[in-house]
Specification:
The protein is an alpha+beta fold and 184 residues long. Among the domains are: 85 residues, no CATH class; 40 residues. The strands form two sheets. The chain has a five-stranded mixed β-sheet with strand order 2-1-6-7-8, with no helix packed on it. A three-stranded antiparallel β-sheet has the order 3-4-5. Helix 1 packs across helix 2. The longest helix is centred in the first third of the chain and has 20 residues.
């Protein structure tokens, strides 16, 4: 299993030095949302209980989590982390001006567990690079340690792979100078 990421060549306007230049910008390729029924079926299969029992447990757990979170509790989600409510509000100098209308938004804050963070950090990645015209120009893969592998046996600077462009051309397209920031 690997996380799929796409790097798309975009016109960058972040700063005056970069204005008008093209850079490869990475973002996760989002999958379709799994519907609740599919999750229930899979959980029932893995736990050995019936789908009906799993559905009842799922619904009850959801109601308990919602009730406790809206009462101000930090609620543990087994294997995932904790969730709690938060808010964004304006500050005021005078206590007489404190009122609920200062609250601009209410939100849910999720804090992942260390186990979940470690699992995400060790998950392999697959990056597909697309030029500004939407053509696939390169693919980069990693091992579970987070290092980038070179499929051709050569290592270009240790971080960027010169693999196939996906169109039969092994030149690596224009991905070799694509401006990847590997975070190293």
């Amino acid at each position: 299993m690997a996380l799929k990421i796409k790097a798309v060549e975009r016109l960058v306007k972040f700063s005056k030095e970069e204005a008008g230049t093209y850079r490869y910008v990475m973002q996760p390729e989002l999958y379709n949302s799994l519907n609740q029924d599919k999750v229930i079926r899979e959980a029932a299969l893995r736990s050995g209980v019936s789908k009906g029992v799993m559905q009842a447990c799922w619904d009850a757990a959801g109601e308990v989590i919602k009730a406790w979170a809206t009462e101000g509790h930090s609620v543990a989600l087994p294997g995932l982390g904790t969730m709690r409510f938060g808010l964004r509000a304006k500050s005021v100098e005078d206590v007489n001006n404190v009122k609920s209308s200062l609250i601009k938004s209410r939100r849910i804050i999720f804090t992942p567990s260390m186990e979940l963070k470690d699992e995400l950090a060790s998950t392999a990645i697959q990056i597909t690079c697309y030029d500004r015209n939407g053509n696939e120009v390169k693919r980069v893969t990693s091992s579970d340690e987070g290092t980038v592998e070179d499929n051709d046996g050569e290592n270009n600077g240790g971080n960027i792979d010169s693999g196939s462009t996906g169109n039969g051309d092994n030149s690596g397209g224009n991905g070799g100078s694509g401006g990847f920031d590997t975070g190293d």
